[in-house]
Write a structure and sequence with these properties.
Elements: E1 2-3, E2 7-19, E3 22-31, H1 45-49, E4 64-71, E5 77-88, H2 92-99, H3 105-110, E6 116-125, H4 130-146, H5 152-161, E7 163-164, H6 188-196, E8 199-200, E9 208-209, H7 224-232, H8 234-245, E10 249-254, H9 257-271, E11 279-281, E12 298-303, E13 316-320, E14 325-327, H10 341-353, H11 356-359, H12 374-392, E15 400-404, E16 410-413, H13 415-421, H14 428-435, H15 437-446, E17 450-451, H16 455-462, H17 464-470, H18 474-492, H19 508-512, H20 525-541, E18 552-553, H21 560-567, H22 574-589, H23 593-606, H24 610-622, E19 629-631, H25 633-648, H26 654-666, E20 669-674, E21 677-680, H27 694-715, H28 720-729, H29 739-749, H30 755-784, H31 810-816, H32 837-855, H33 860-888, E22 910-920, E23 939-946, E24 949-956, E25 966-971, E26 975-984, E27 991-999, E28 1003-1009, H34 1015-1029, H35 1038-1041, H36 1059-1063, H37 1072-1083, H38 1097-1103, H39 1120-1125, H40 1128-1137, H41 1139-1146, E29 1164-1167, E30 1183-1186, H42 1191-1197, E31 1208-1212, E32 1219-1223, H43 1228-1234, H44 1247-1264, H45 1267-1273, H46 1300-1308, H47 1331-1335, H48 1341-1344, ...
Helix pairs in contact: 4-5, 5-20, 7-8, 7-9, 7-12, 10-12, 10-18, 12-18, 13-26, 22-23, 22-24, 23-25, 24-26, 25-26, 27-30, 30-32, 30-33, 32-33, 37-38, 43-44, 46-52, 50-51, 52-53, 52-56, 53-54, 53-56, 56-57
C-alpha cells in the first residue's frame, strides 16, 4: 500500500526577498510539518512551482496545472503537482515600488492598485497519477473560490491520509462509494476498507476512481507516447530513443510545461524494459539552466522561452516539440539500431501511425482505415518497442553467469558470448547498450532466477519462435503488436467501465471575472494534523495487508545457438568445409601425416569461418582422455598450427568464445620431450592478444564457477528437486537443468532451511570459488609466461624475428619470442619496463584475483592466501618451462622442403647461400589462383644472393601444385626499393619479419624469412645486397667483376677484412674503393675524377690501412693522362674504327682517310677537335661539323651551350639532304645574344656579342650546306649533291601527310584542337621527289601555331609580309628556355618552342607505372584499379609527347628543312627524339646492325648518362632510377606494333635490351660517356684477349651469338620497303601497354639470361625417363599464363617448323644447317615463285613482297611474337671465337645478295690462304680468302671449313692493288715478292702469299675483277 500524497503545500510570492529584481516564492504552509520516515520532504519546490520565475503581473492569468519531477538522493522520483492561480495583492504600496521595473509606466500610474501575484497549491507524491492530482487540487481551489460548505482542512486531511495499493488491479470486492465526510470517525474499519478501494472521495461531494496498474513494473503512459510520435515523427523519436540508450544528452523544448512532462514520460515508457538511470528533469526551472552544461547524460525539459541559452551547448541533442524537429550537433554520433531491425521497426510504426499509407495507391481503398484512438495507439506503439527489445535481448538469460546462489544470488552477464553468438560483435549500438548503466540495472533487476515475472519475461522466453517466423511479414507482426497492446492497455485500465468521476469545477463566470478579493485562507494546522495522526494510528493497529507476491522461476527461453545460424555469417558450403576439418583431425590422430598435409591448406582456409572454428574445438575435445592427449612431434605441430590459425582469425569479440573453448585444450595436448619433460600446447599459442585481456579471463572464470556450483547442487543429497524441476518444466527427462534453474529452486527452498544448513551451503560455495581462483592463477601463468623466460617479452614489440638462437622447430621458436605487442596499462601491466616477466605476470594475476574474489564474495583470509600463493605458482611454472625450453631446442628439425639450387650463369657466384624464406603473393592475382589456375604462391623455398642476381627458388605451399618449381629473380643492379615488412604466413600463423624488394625489371619479391633464419643473418643479407646494388665505383659492378672475384659466400659471423683484395685478380683495378683515389696518388699526376663520389675521396684515403700503390697494374688503370701520352695516331685509328664513322660515311657526311686529309667539295667534315675530349667531355672524339667552320670557332661556340654540347650533325636525309643536328639547350645568357634582342646596346662589341655572331655563322654554314638553300639563293649548283637516291617518281604520293603547321600546333601545345590531324593510316604515303616542295607552302613555327610574334610597338609582325616560304632550319627548343628571344625576320632559321618532360617527371611516372603493373598488395579500392593507376602514372602521356615531337621532326626533314634538336642538357630527351627520328626516317636503323649502330652512336657516344640515370653506383644512389632509355625502347615498341613488317628484329629483342640495360651483366651500358670508358680502358677492349671466352662483355656480341643459334630475335615478317619513312599514330589511345611490364614466367624466372635456360633444358634431358607403366599418357599440356613461357610451350608456326626441321635432321644424323640459312633459302625460292606467277597469291607473298599497299603493310598479319622460347639448339656452345664487327653499311652492289650467304662454288672465283696484317699493332694472321665475282667482294674466313665470314672487303671501294714490302712482325722466311697491298677508300690492307707466283696470281685476279666492274 502507498499514500496517495505525501505532502500538501501552499506556496506564495515572497514580498520581502527579491534578488536583482526577480521575485522568489516561499512555502506559506506545509502538511504534515514533520517529514515522513519513508519519504523525506524534497527541497527547492518553490523553484518548480514557477519554472519561468516568480513575477507579479498587471492582469489576472488563468489557473495552470503542471507536474514537475524531482529526484532525491536515493534516486527516488517525487512527482510535484502544482496548481497555480493568481491573487490580487492586498498591499499595493508595498508592491508598487518593487514592481515599477516590471509593469508599464502607464499601468503603474492608472492601476497601481491592481497587481496580481501567483500562488500555488502543491501535492508531493511518489506515485504518478496526473489526472487524480489535477482533480484533487482543482477541488480544493473550487471550494476556496466558490466558497463551498466543505471545510478545506477536512478535504486536505482526507487527501493526505488516502492509501491505495500500488498495483494489482482490483483483487478486492468493493462497495461503490465511501464518502469520508459522512462516516463517523469511530468506524475506523469501514473507513479503512474504503481506502483500500480505488474509488476515493475527499468529502466535498466528489468521487474518483483510481485505476492502479495490474503490474507496477510496466510503465504507465496514458497517451504520452502517441503524443510524442505525433509531435516529432517516427525517425526523430527513434533517434532520441537510440540517443537515450547510448547515453547521450537530450533536451526537450516546448512552451507548454505539461507537454514537456508528457514527452519525457513517453520517452521513458518506450525504453522499457530498460530504466533510465541518469539525470531526469522533465521541467527545469530557468534559474537552474546552467545544469545543462553538466558532463553526465540527461533527459531534461526546458521552456522554449530559454531557447537562446541552449544555443551554445555543443553536445546536446535538442528536440523541439512545438516545431517537430530534432537537432543533432555535428560532434555527436548516434549509433542506430542494427539492420534489419531498424527498417522493420519503422515499417510497423508507420502502419500504426498512418494506416492509410499502405493503401494510398489502391484504386478502391477500404472505407475506414483511421488510426486507433490516441490511448490505444499509445499502447500499440509501446508494443512495437516491447517487440523490438524482445528481439534485441532474446537469449540474454543464456549469457548470465550465476557465481553465487547463497546468501544472495550474484550474477554476471557475459557480453562477449552474447554478441559473439549473434555475430553482432561489430554492432556499435548493441555494444554501447550492453556497456551502459541501463543494461547493468536490467541485469541486476532481471538476472535473479527466482522472482516475479512480467510481460517482457514472457515475451523473451516464450514468443521468440513466433517473432522469428513473423519478422519478415509486417502484417503478422502487426497482429502480434495488437495483442501486446491489448495487454498493456488492460494493465493500465483494468476497469474501463468504472471510470465514473464526479468532481466539482469552479463556475464559468468565476473563472474569468475577479473572484472575491479574499486571498487563499490560512489552514488550521491542528485540524489537518489530527486527521493525519488518526489515520496513521489506525493503519498501525490494522492487520497488515499482504499482497501475495507471486515469485516463480524465470523462464530462459530457447538458447541462442539455434537463433544464430540463420542470420549469422555462416560461410557458403560450410558443410563441406567442416567435413574437411574433421577429416584432417582424424588423419592427424590416425598418424596419416601425408593425407593431413594435403588437407592442411584447405583447413586453414576453412578456419576463417566461425562454424569451422567451433567444429575444430568440438573435434579436438573428442581426442582428449582424462584431460590429457600425448602426441608425437608432427601431430603436435599440426595441432598447434590449427589452434594458432583458429585464434588468429577470430574477430575481437568472437575470439572470446573460441578462446574459451580452446583453453582446456591447450593444457591437454602435449608431447614428450625427454625423461619426464612434457611440452604442452599452451607454450605454442601464446601469441594472441586475447590472453592479455582481463575481461576474457573474468568471463572464463565466471562460467567455470557457474559450472562447479551447478555440479555442487546437482550432487547434493536430495534428488527430489530434480524431479520437481522436471515436472515444472514439462519438457522433462531429456533436458539438462541449467544453473539458473537450479539457483531458482535453491532460492525457493532457502527460507525453509535451518541456519546450519544455510551456513554450510554458503561455505561450500565460497570454497568452490576459491579453488577455481587457484586453478585460474595456474592457467593464467601457463598462457602468460613465455617459453624462454630469460627474454622479457613485455619489452619487445617487434614480432618474432629478433630471436638470437636459431631454434629448430618453428613451434618452439614461435614462442621463443614474446606475446604480441608489449602490454599497455589497459591490458593489465603498468610499468613493464622496470620489472621482469615473472613480476609483471604476478601483478596481472593479482589484479584478476582481487577483482573476481571481491565480486564473488571470497573471504579475506582466502584472498590473502591466494596472494601469497601466486608468486610461488609463477616461480614453479618458470622452473618447469626452463627444462622444456632446453629440451625443445634439441628437437630434430621438422622436415621442410628441400632447398632447390638455382642454375648460375658462367662467372656468376653465390654471395650468400640460400636462406629459407616464404615468397608471399603480391598484388598480381595470376599466381595466387584467384583468377583460376593453381595457387602457385605463397611458395616456400630459399633466396639466393649472387654477384649478379637475387633468386628465389622453391615450391608452392599448396600440396596440389607442390611438384612445380617457382622461380622469381632479378638482377641485383635493378633493385629500386627495399623495405621491411612484417608478414603473417598463412600456414604457420606467426608474424615473421620480411622484405619487400622491387626491381625496375618489373619484378617484386615479398619474402618472409623462415624462423630458422636468425634476424642478424637477415640483416647481413640486407647489407650484402646493398653493397652489391650500390658499389663504390662502376668497376664493382658485375660486368667488371664477373668471373674474377673469389668465393664470397658468407659464412655466418666470420668476416675477413681483406678477402676481396686477395681474391681480385691482377688485371682489374683493385677493389674500386681503394684504387680510385689511390692511383692518382701513386702516379703523382692529377686528373680530375669524373664519377660522382668526388667528395668522398679524401676520407677514403685516410681510412685506408693497406697501401696498394705497389700493386697497381700499369695497364689496368688507364687514366686519361696515360691515354694522352700514347700517340695521337693510335687514338685516332681506334676512334676511326668505331662504327659511327662507317655510318657517317654511309650517310655521305665526310670521310676520314688515314692522313686525315679531307676532300674540300664536301659540305661537312669529320672534325677531330674533341679527340682529347677537351672541348666537351660527354661528346664522342669525332664530330661532324660544317666544312667552313674552323676548329677554333668551335672552342668559342661551345661555351654558349650547357655542358659545352654545341650543335653537331648526326644524320642526313639522303633524298632532301636536310640534316639533323643535336645539342644541349643554350645557357640562359646565350639566349638573348642568340636572337639579337633589340635591347642589347650595340655600341661596345662585348664578348657575348662576338660569340653570338659566331653562333649565327655556324647556323648559317649549316643552312648553306643544304641544296635547297643553294638553289634558292642561286649560288651553288647541285653537282656536289647528286645522288642515285633522288628519284623524282611521285608514284607513292597517294596519302597527304597532315599539314606541318597542324603538327606544330600540337607539339607546341596551343589550346585549339586541330581536327583530323592524325586521321590516316599507319605510314602516311612517303611523298618523295621534287614536286614535293612546291605542293603546298608550309608556313611553320610560331606564326603557324596561331601566334604572331608581335613587335614591341604592337603592329603586325613584319615577318609575315617578308617571308612566306619555309625556314631552312628549325630549332626545337624548350619553351622555358626561349623566353625573351626575338626572331629576326631575315634569318633563315626558326624556333619551335615545345614543353619538354623533365627528368623528375619521368622518374615519378616510372615509379607509379611500376606500382600499377606490379602492385605490392591486392586492393578492392576502385580508385586503385590497374587502368586507373596506369592513367595516373602518365607514362603513356610522356610516350605520346616524345613520339609527337619525333614525328614533327621527321616531317620537317622530309620536306627538306634541317632540324636542330636543342633540349635540356642534350643527353636525355634530345637523345630520345634524335634516335627516334633516325629510326623513323632511315630503314637501315631498323635492322640489327643499324639499331646497334644507332644506340652506340646516339646513346653511348653522345654521352647519355647511363650510370647516373640507372643509379648504378653509391654516388648516384640519391639521384634515383630514371629510365630514359627504357622510355625510348617503349617508343620503339609502339612503332614496331604499328609497323610490324618494317623491323628486322622482334619485340623480344627490345625486351632483351630493356632488361639488360639495367642488369649490369654487360659493360655496354655502363658509365656515362666515351671519355669515361676510355679512362677505364673499356672502350677498345681487344676481342682476342678474353680470359674466359664464355663471358661476353658486350651485349651486342651476345645478341649476335644468340641470333646465330636461334631465331628468337628475328622478326619473320620483316619485309622492308626501300627508304620508307614511318609516321606512327601518337595519340595515347593508339599506344599499348608494353607486355614487358606485365609478364612473368614463374617456371624459370626472366627469360633474358639464356645460359640459365639452356642448362635447365639440358638437365631435364639428362634425367633418364623411367618407363611409364601407368597406362597411356596424355599429350596435352596445360599452359598457365604466369607460370609457363608461352613462346616456348606454344611457339609460333615458323619457329615450330624450324624446330621440327632441326630435330628431323638430327634424327637422320645430318649436321643441322643454321636456321638463318634455311630461312634465306626459303625466301629465295619464294621470290623466284613470285616472279613466275603473274598474279601472286596473297598468302605466299605476304611475308616477302614489298608491293602491298601501305594500309595492309602497317596492319600486316601478326605472327605471334617469337617471344622467348624458340629453343633451336639453345645450348650456347661456349665458343672461344668471337664474332666479327658488324658489316659496314651495304653499298648498292651487294644489296641483292645481302639476305643470304651461300657457299656454292660458282660464287668463289678464286680462293686460298693469305697472311693478313691486322689493324694497328696487331699481328699477321693466316686467313682463308675467297674472291667472289658475283657479289663483287673479297671475303675472308678463319679456315677453309669455316662457314662464318670474318670480314669483307668490298671491291667497289678498292682503289689499287700493288706489290708491297714486309713490315714488322711479318711471317719469317718468305720471299719479299710474296707481299702485296690493297688500297681501299678506308685503309690499306697488307697481304702475304705463300710465294711470289701465288701473290702475282692474287693480284691479277683482283685486278680483273676491278676492270670487269
Amino acid at each position: 500500500m502507498a499514500r496517495l500524497a505525501d505532502y500538501f503545500l501552499v506556496v506564495g510570492y515572497d514580498l520581502d526577498k527579491r534578488v536583482e529584481g526577480e521575485g522568489q516564492g516561499r512555502i506559506l504552509q506545509r502538511f504534515p510539518e514533520k517529514d515522513w520516515e519513508d519519504s523525506p520532504f524534497p527541497q527547492g519546490i518553490e523553484l518548480f512551482c514557477q519554472p519561468s520565475g516568480w513575477q507579479l503581473v498587471p492582469e489576472r492569468q488563468p489557473a495552470t496545472f503542471i507536474v514537475a519531477v524531482l529526484t532525491d538522493i536515493n534516486s527516488e522520483r517525487h512527482y510535484c503537482a502544482c496548481f497555480t492561480f493568481w491573487e490580487c495583492l492586498d498591499n499595493p504600496q508595498k508592491a508598487e515600488a518593487s514592481e515599477l521595473d516590471e509593469v508599464d509606466e502607464d499601468l503603474a500610474v492608472v492601476q497601481a492598485t491592481k497587481v496580481f501575484a501567483p500562488k500555488s497549491l502543491v501535492l508531493v507524491s511518489r506515485l504518478d497519477y496526473t489526472e487524480v492530482f489535477r482533480n484533487c487540487l482543482g477541488l480544493v481551489y473550487t471550494i476556496y473560490v466558490d466558497g463551498l460548505s466543505a471545510p478545506l482542512e477536512t478535504v486536505i486531511g482526507n487527501l493526505l491520509t488516502c492509501v491505495i495499493p500500488i498495483a494489482g488491479g482490483s483483487q478486492i470486492d468493493e462497495s461503490p462509494v465511501c464518502s469520508l465526510g459522512k462516516v463517523p470517525q469511530a468506524l475506523a474499519c469501514d473507513w479503512l476498507l474504503a481506502c483500500l478501494q480505488r474509488t476515493i472521495t475527499l468529502g466535498a461531494g466528489d468521487r474518483q476512481v483510481i485505476q492502479t496498474p495490474i503490474d507496477d513494473s510496466l510503465p504507465v503512459s496514458g497517451s504520452s507516447v502517441a503524443q510524442l510520435f505525433r509531435q516529432l515523427g517516427i525517425v526523430n523519436v527513434l533517434y532520441l530513443l537510440c540517443a537515450a540508450l547510448t547515453e547521450h544528452k537530450i533536451l526537450f523544448l516546448s512552451c507548454s510545461y505539461q507537454r514537456l512532462t508528457d514527452a519525457c514520460r513517453g520517452l521513458l515508457a518506450i525504453m522499457f524494459p530498460l530504466k533510465y538511470s541518469f539525470t531526469y528533469v522533465p521541467i527545469l526551472p530557468g534559474k537552474l539552466i546552467e545544469v545543462l552544461s553538466t558532463p553526465t547524460p540527461f533527459i531534461i525539459g526546458v521552456n522554449s522561452f530559454f531557447r537562446s541559452e541552449t544555443q551554445e551547448l555543443l553536445d546536446v541533442i535538442v528536440a523541439d516539440l512545438d516545431g517537430g524537429t530534432v537537432t543533432i550537433p555535428e560532434c555527436v554520433h548516434i549509433s542506430l539500431l542494427p539492420e534489419p531491425l531498424l527498417q522493420q521497426t519503422q515499417t510497423v510504426l508507420a502502419m500504426i501511425l498512418d494506416p492509410e499509407l499502405e493503401i494510398a495507391d489502391h484504386a478502391f481503398p477500404p472505407v475506414s482505415s483511421q488510426p486507433s484512438a490516441l490511448k490505444i495507439q499509445d499502447k500499440e506503439i509501446r508494443a512495437v518497442f516491447l517487440w523490438l527489445f524482445a528481439r534485441l535481448f532474446q537469449g540474454y538469460r543464456w549469457c548470465l553467469h550465476i557465481i553465487r546462489i547463497h546468501p544472495e544470488p550474484v550474477i554476471r552477464f557475459h557480453k562477449a558470448a552474447f554478441l559473439g553468438q549473434r555475430s553482432l560483435t561489430e554492432d556499435d549500438f548493441l555494444m554501447k547498450v550492453l556497456d551502459g548503466m541501463a543494461f547493468a540495472g536490467f541485469v541486476s533487476e532481471r538476472g535473479p532466477p527466482y522472482r516475479a515475472t512480467d510481460l517482457f519475461d514472457d515475451l523473451v522466453a516464450n514468443e521468440v519462435e513466433r517473432i522469428r517466423q513473423e519478422e519478415a511479414c509486417p502484417h503478422k507482426v502487426m497482429n502480434h503488436v495488437k495483442e501486446l497492446a491489448e495487454q498493456l492497455f488492460k494493465n493500465e485500465n483494468p476497469y474501463p467501465a468504472v471510470a465514473m468521476h464526479k468532481v466539482q469545477r469552479p463556475k464559468e463566470s468565476r473563472q474569468n471575472e475577479a473572484p472575491n478579493q479574499t486571498p487563499f485562507p490560512g489552514l488550521d494546522d491542528v485540524a489537518v494534523q489530527l486527521f493525519i495522526d488518526h489515520a496513521s494510528a489506525k493503519l498501525k493497529s490494522a492487520p497488515p495487508v499482504v499482497k501475495a507476491e507471486l515469485k516463480a522461476m524465470v523462464p530462459s527461453g530457447p538458447p541462442l545457438g539455434d537463433i544464430v545460424d540463420r542470420n549469422g555469417n555462416v560461410m557458403a558450403n560450410s558443410a563441406r568445409r567442416l567435413e574437411v576439418v574433421r577429416n584432417c583431425i582424424t588423419y592427424i590422430f590416425e598418424n596419416k601425416m601425408l593425407e593431413a598435409k594435403k588437407l592442411m591448406p584447405a583447413v586453414l582456409r576453412a578456419l576463417k569461418g566461425r562454424a569451422a572454428r567451433v567444429c575444430l574445438t568440438q573435434e579436438l575435445n573428442q581426442h582428449v582422455l582424462q584431460n590429457r592427449a600425448v602426441l608425437d612431434d608432427q601431430q603436435f605441430d599440426y595441432i598447434v598450427r590449427m589452434l594458432n590459425c583458429t585464434l588468429q582469425d577470430c574477430s575481437h569479440m568472437d575470439e572470446h568464445g573460441i578462446a574459451a573453448a580452446l583453453l582446456p585444450l591447450v593444457t591437454a595436448f602435449c608431447r614428450k620431450l625427454g625423461s619426464g619433460i612434457t611440452q604442452f600446447a599452451y607454450s605454442c599459442v601464446q601469441e594472441h592478444m586475447v590472453w592479455t585481456n582481463m575481461q576474457f579471463w573474468e568471463a572464463m572464470f565466471y562460467s567455470d564457477v557457474q559450472n562447479h556450483i551447478r555440479a555442487l547442487y546437482l550432487e547434493s543429497e536430495d534428488g527430489e528437486q530434480q524431479k520437481n524441476l522436471e515436472q515444472q518444466d514439462g519438457s522433462g527427462e531429456g533436458r539438462e537443468i541449467s544453473a539458473l534453474e537450479l539457483a531458482s529452486e535453491q532460492n525457493r527452498l532457502w527460507p525453509t532451511l535451518s541456519k546450519e544448513m544455510q551456513m554450510e551451503r554458503v561455505q561450500k560455495e565460497e570454497s568452490t570459488v576459491f579453488s577455481q581462483a587457484i586453478h585460474y592463477a595456474n592457467r593464467m601463468s601457463y598462457l602468460l609466461l613465455p617459453l624462454d623466460t630469460s627474454k622479457n617479452r613485455l619489452l619487445r614489440n617487434t614480432g618474432l624475428g629478433d630471436v638470437e638462437s636459431v631454434s629448430n622447430s618453428y613451434v618452439t621458436n614461435s614462442i621463443a619470442g614474446s606475446m604480441a605487442e608489449s602490454y599497455d596499462t589497459e591490458s593489465g601491466f603498468e610499468d613493464a619496463e622496470s620489472s621482469d616477466v615473472a613480476n609483471s605476470v604476478v601483478r596481472f594475476i593479482n589484479r584478476f584475483v582481487d577483482k573476481v574474489c571481491n565480486e564473488s564474495g571470497v573471504t579475506n583470509e582466502h584472498l590473502k592466501a591466494l596472494h601469497t600463493m601466486i608468486p610461488d605458482i609463477v616461480q614453479m611454472h618458470i622452473e618447469t618451462l626452463d627444462a622444456v625450453h632446453r629440451e625443445s631446442k634439441r628437437l630434430p628439425p621438422i622436415q621442410k622442403p628441400k632447398l632447390l639450387r638455382p642454375i648460375l650463369l658462367p662467372g656468376e657466384e653465390l654471395v650468400m647461400d640460400g636462406m629459407r624464406v616464404h615468397l608471399i603473393p603480391d598484388g598480381r592475382e595470376e599466381a595466387t589462383g584467384m583468377m583460376g589456375g593453381p595457387p602457385l604462391l605463397p611458395a616456400e623455398g630459399a633466396i639466393f644472393l649472387t654477384t649478379y642476381r637475387l633468386i628465389f627458388k622453391g615450391t608452392p605451399t599448396d600440396p596440389l601444385v607442390g611438384e612445380q618449381v617457382v622461380t622469381r629473380s632479378f638482377p641485383i643492379a635493378s633493385l629500386t626499393k627495399e623495405k621491411r615488412i612484417s608478414v603473417t604466413i598463412p600456414m604457420d600463423q606467426f608474424v615473421q619479419e620480411g622484405l619487400q624488394l622491387r626491381s625496375c625489371t618489373f619484378q617484386l619479391m615479398k619474402i618472409a624469412f623462415d624462423e630458422e633464419v636468425a634476424s642478424d643473418l637477415a640483416e647481413v643479407f640486407r647489407k650484402h645486397m646493398h653493397k652489391l646494388r650500390y658499389p663504390q665505383h662502376v668497376q664493382g659492378t658485375f660486368a667488371f667483376t664477373v668471373g674474377q672475384c673469389g668465393k664470397m659466400v658468407v659464412e655466418h659471423k666470420t668476416k675477413d677484412k681483406n678477402q676481396s683484395l686477395r681474391t681480385l685478380s691482377k688485371n682489374l683495378v683493385k677493389s674500386a674503393k681503394r684504387t680510385i683515389g689511390r692511383q692518382y696518388v701513386t702516379r703523382k699526376k692529377y686528373s680530375p675524377p669524373t664519377w660522382e663520389n668526388r667528395s668522398s675521396f679524401q676520407s677514403e684515403l685516410d681510412e685506408d690501412e693497406i697501401s696498394v700503390s705497389e700493386e697497381v697494374d700499369q695497364q689496368s688503370s688507364l687514366t686519361l693522362s696515360s691515354t694522352i701520352r700514347s700517340s695521337d695516331r693510335q687514338t685516332m685509328s681506334n676512334v676511326v674504327e668505331r662504327a659511327c664513322c662507317r655510318d657517317y660515311q654511309r650517310l655521305g657526311l665526310g670521310t676520314l682517310s688515314n692522313s686525315l686529309t679531307r676532300s674540300n667539295n664536301e659540305p661537312f667534315r669529320i672534325s677531330t677537335v674533341n679527340r682529347m675530349y677537351a672541348v666537351c667531355r660527354s661528346y664522342p672524339g669525332l664530330l661532324i661539323v660544317p666544312q667552313s667552320i674552323p676548329d677554333s670557332t668551335i672552342h668559342r661556340i661551345c661555351r654558349c651551350y650547357r655542358q659545352n654540347r654545341f650543335p653537331v650533325v648526326c644524320w642526313r636525309n639522303s633524298r632532301t639532304k636536310a640534316v639533323l643536328l643535336r645539342s644541349a639547350g643554350l645557357h640562359a645568357k646565350g639566349v638573348v645574344g642568340f636572337f639579337k634582342s633589340p635591347n642589347t646596346p650595340t655600341a661596345v662589341p662585348s664578348q657575348a656579342e662576338s660569340t653570338s655572331l659566331e653562333q649565327e655563322k655556324y647556323l648559317q654554314a649549316i643552312i648553306s650546306s643544304m641544296p635547297s638553300y643553294s638553289e634558292s639563293s642561286g649560288r651553288n649548283t647541285l653537282s656536289g649533291f647528286t645522288s642515285t637516291h633522288m628519284s623524282t617518281s611521285d608514284s607513292s604520293d597517294k596519302l597527304r601527310p597532315p599539314k606541318i603547321g597542324a603538327l606544330m600546333k600540337q607539339v607546341m601545345g596551343t589550346k585549339e584542337d586541330v581536327p583530323g590531324t592524325f586521321s590516316r593510316g599507319g605510314k602516311w604515303g612517303s611523298i618523295r621527289g621534287s614536286g614535293r616542295l612546291s605542293a603546298y607552302n608550309p608556313d611553320v613555327g610560331t606564326r603557324l601555331a596561331g601566334k604572331e610574334s608581335p613587335q614591341p610597338n604592337g603592329g603586325p609582325s613584319e615577318a609575315l609580309f617578308l617571308r612566306q616560304q619555309k625556314a631552312f632550319l628549325y630549332i626545337i627548343g624548350d619553351k622555358a628556355q626561349l623566353k625573351g628571344g626575338k626572331q629576326d625576320s631575315f634569318q633563315q632559321w626558326e624556333v619551335v618552342p615545345i614543353e619538354v618532360c623533365d627528368v623528375r617527371q619521368v622518374k615519378n611516372s616510372f615509379k607509379k607505372l611500376m606500382k600499377a603493373c606490379v602492385p605490392s598488395s591486392q586492393t578492392l579500392d576502385p580508385n586503385m584499379s590497374f587502368l586507373r593507376c596506369l592513367e595516373e602514372s602518365e607514362w603513356m602521356t610522356l610516350l605520346h609527347r616524345v613520339l609527337q615531337v619525333s614525328v614533327l621532326v621527321v616531317e620537317l626533314l622530309d620536306t627538306g628543312s634541317s632540324v636542330m634538336v636543342s633540349l635540356e642538357d642534350g643527353w636525355d630527351v634530345t637523345t630520345q627524339v634524335v634516335s627516334l627520328v633516325q629510326l623513323l626516317s632511315d630503314p637501315y636503323y631498323r635492322t640489327f646492325d643499324g639499331f646497334r649502330l644507332l644506340v652506340e652512336k646516339e646513346w653511348l657516344s653522345f654521352g647519355h648518362k647511363f650510370s647516373q640515370r640507372g643509379a648504378q653506383t653509391l654516388g648516384s644512389q640519391s639521384s634515383g632510377f630514371t629510365p630514359v632509355f627504357l622510355q625510348f625502347l617503349d617508343c620503339v615498341h609502339q612503332i614496331h606494333l604499328q609497323f610490324p613488317m618494317e623491323f628486322e628484329f622482334s619485340q623480344y629483342y627490345l625486351k632483351f635490351l630493356a632488361y639488360h640495360y639495367v642488369s649490369n651483366r654487360f659493360r655496354t651500358f655502363l658509365l656515362d660517356s666515351d671519355y669515361e670508358r676510355i679512362e677505364l680502358g673499356v672502350l677498345y677492349e681487344e676481342k682476342g684477349e678474353r680470359k674466359s671466352p664464355q663471358v661476353c662483355k658486350s651485349v651486342w656480341d651476345y645478341i649476335d651469338r644468340l641470333n646465330k643459334k636461334t631465331p628468337i630475335f628475328f622478326n619473320y615478317m620483316y619485309c622492308p620497303e626501300d627508304y620508307e619513312v614511318l609516321r606512327p599514330y601518337t595519340y595515347t589511345s593508339n599506344l599499348k601497354v608494353w607486355d614487358y611490364y606485365m609478364e612473368e614466367t614463374l617456371s624459370e624466372g626472366p627469360s633474358y639470361d639464356w645460359e640459365a635456360r639452356g642448362r635447365q633444358e639440358r638437365v631435364a634431358e639428362e634425367t633418364p625417363e623411367k618407363p611409364d607403366t601407368s597406362g597411356p599418357k596424355s599429350q596435352r599440356h596445360i599452359v598457365w599464363p604466369c607460370y609457363d613461357s608461352l613462346s616456348k610451350t606454344v611457339p609460333d608456326a615458323i619457329t615450330k617448323l624450324l624446330q621440327d626441321l632441326q630435330s628431323l635432321e638430327a634424327e637422320l644424323g645430318q649436321t643441322s644447317e643454321k636456321w638463318k640459312d634455311t630461312w634465306d633459302k626459303i625466301k629465295t625460292t619464294q621470290r623466284a615463285e613470285i616472279k613466275l606467277e603473274s598474279k601472286p597469291s596473297f598468302t605466299s607473298s605476304l611475308l616477302m613482297s614489298s608491293n602491298l599497299s601501305h594500309q595492309r603493310r602497317s596492319q600486316g598479319v601478326y605472327l605471334q611474337e617469337s617471344g622467348v622460347g624458340s629453343s633451336i639448339n639453345l645450348a650456347l656452345d661456349c665458343e672461344a671465337s668471337a664474332t666479327s664487327t658488324p658489316v659496314a653499311g651495304r653499298p648498292s652492289t651487294s644489296t641483292l645478295y645481302s639476305q643470304f650467304q651461300s657457299t656454292e662454288s660458282e660464287n668463289r672465283s678464286f680462293e686460298g690462304i693469305l697472311y693478313k696484317k691486322g689493324a694497328l699493332l696487331k699481328p699477321w694472321k693466316p686467313r682463308w680468302f675467297v674472291l667472289d665475282k658475283t657479289k663483287h667482294q673479297l671475303r675472308y674466313y678463319e679456315s677453309r671449313q669455316d662457314k662464318e665470314c670474318k670480314g669483307v672487303i668490298e671491291l667497289a671501294d678498292v682503289e689499287s692493288v700493288m706489290p708491297g714490302t714486309p713490315t714488322m712482325g711479318a711471317p719469317k722466311n718468305i720471299d719479299e715478292k710474296a707481299f702485296f697491298d690493297l688500297k681501299t677508300t678506308k685503309r690499306v690492307y697488307n697481304f702475304c702469299a705463300q710465294d711470289s707466283a701465288n701473290a702475282q696470281l692474287w693480284m691479277d685476279s683482283v685486278q680483273s675483277c676491278l676492270s670487269d666492274a
